[in-house]
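Onboarding guide, step 5: your first structure request.
Type a short instruction followed by the sequence, for example:

Predict the 3D structure of this protein.
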Amino acid sequence: MIYATKNLEDDHVFILRLIDVMEVMTTVSEPEIEHLEEVVAIIRSFADGLHHAKEESLLFPLMAERGFSMQFGPIAVMLQDHEDGRNYVKGMAENIALLKNGELSALNLVYYNMLGYGELLRNHISKENNVLFRMADNALSSADHQSLTEQFDQIENQSYPDKKGDFVARIEKLVTAYNA
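The system replies with structure tokens like these:
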């Protein structure tokens, strides 16, 4: 059987690659502002936009229909992680703006939020890949997986101006720039 969760796990590979780059970036004393802004843009469009949209609008509600709680348990934990991640990204963006306006001390807060986001997402992805997605694989029918896979493809191909491959290319450009 083809599991819809494979699509989400594939996204995780690229999100983790971006986190690797972010961790290297935090070791640079004078980073390229454009690179910091690109990280925020990729997270907002790919990790939070495309990837979390597939989870929050499709997978999690379907799991709830199959008896999982959205208020307690693993789905609730994942939703809280998503919100915490958004707060780290907000902290990155706000401090990048300050940095652009000459407040050099804001770089420490940019890096704090980058590292916090990275740690959160590494743990989050581990919980999803090893616990939540395995629960979904067991709870959802073959027809559920087929339907989700088709809906994921539709979101990826129609709902986002940047295609998944474009995000991957943008991440790889940062990987190259930072030898990550």
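Each response can be followed by summary notes, for example: The chain has six helices and no strands.
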